[in-house]
Amino acid sequence: MSRSTLENILEGCTSKLRKIEYCLSGEPTMNKELPEFISLTKKKYPDVKNLVLSNTDLMRTKYGFGYLIDLFDRGMDYIQTDLYDQESKDWFIDECKKNKDILKDRGIQIFDYYKVPFNLYSYGKKIKTIFF
C-alpha cells in the first residue's frame, strides 16, 4: 500500500473509526513506510488503535528489535506476533528480556496470547501491548 492510498482511506473514515490493522496479504513490515503509516494514522486519529500482525522475521534478520520499539514510539498500540518456529520464538523472548527496562519505561506490556486472558481488541485502555 502506498502513502497516498492510506491517506485516501483515512480521509474516507469517520470519527467512529476504532482500529487500523496492518496485516493480510503479506507481512506488514515488508512495507518500508509502515512506521510512517502508524505515525500518520495516530496523528489524524489519536484514539484509534494501531494493530500490527507480524511474524517478526524481518525484525530478527534485518531491522533488529529497535524497529519494534520505534513502532510503539510512533503510535502502535498492539503487535501480535506469529512465532511459528522455535528459532523465532527464542530470539523474540530473548530480545524482550534484554530490552525489558526499555519496554517497561515506555509502558509496553508483554503477554503470551495463549496463556493470559486479555482482550486484544480492548478500546478503553491506553496501553501498549506485545502478544506472542
Per DSSP E runs of 2 or more residues, the count of β-strands stands at: 5
Radius of gyration: 14 Å
Mean pLDDT rating: 85
Q: Given the helix and strand composition, which structural class is it?
A: alpha/beta
Strand order of the largest sheet: 1-2-3-5-4
% residues in beta strands:
15-25%
Distance separating the two termini: 25 Å
User: Shape, please?
Assistant: globular
How is the main sheet built? Answer: 5 strands, parallel
Q: Helicity range of the residues?
A: 40-55%
The helix/strand order is: HEHEHHEHHEE
**Tally of separate domains:** 1
Low-confidence stretches: none
Helix count, DSSP H or I runs of 4 or more residues: 6
What labels describe this entry?
rSAM_sf, alpha/beta, 132 residues, 42% helix, Radical SAM core domain-containing protein, Aldolase_TIM
Description of the structure:
It is a single chain. This protein starts with a helix and ends with a strand. It contains six helices and five strands, in the order αβαβααβααββ. The protein has a five-stranded parallel β-sheet. The model has no long low-confidence stretch (mean pLDDT 85). Helix 1 runs parallel beside helix 2. By secondary structure, it is an alpha/beta fold. It has one domain (3-14, 22-131).
Write the layout of secondary structure elements.
Blueprint: H1 3-11, E1 19-22, H2 34-44, E2 49-54, H3 57-63, H4 65-74, E3 78-81, H5 86-98, H6 100-105, E4 108-111, E5 128-131
Parallel strand pairs: 1-2, 2-3, 3-5, 4-5
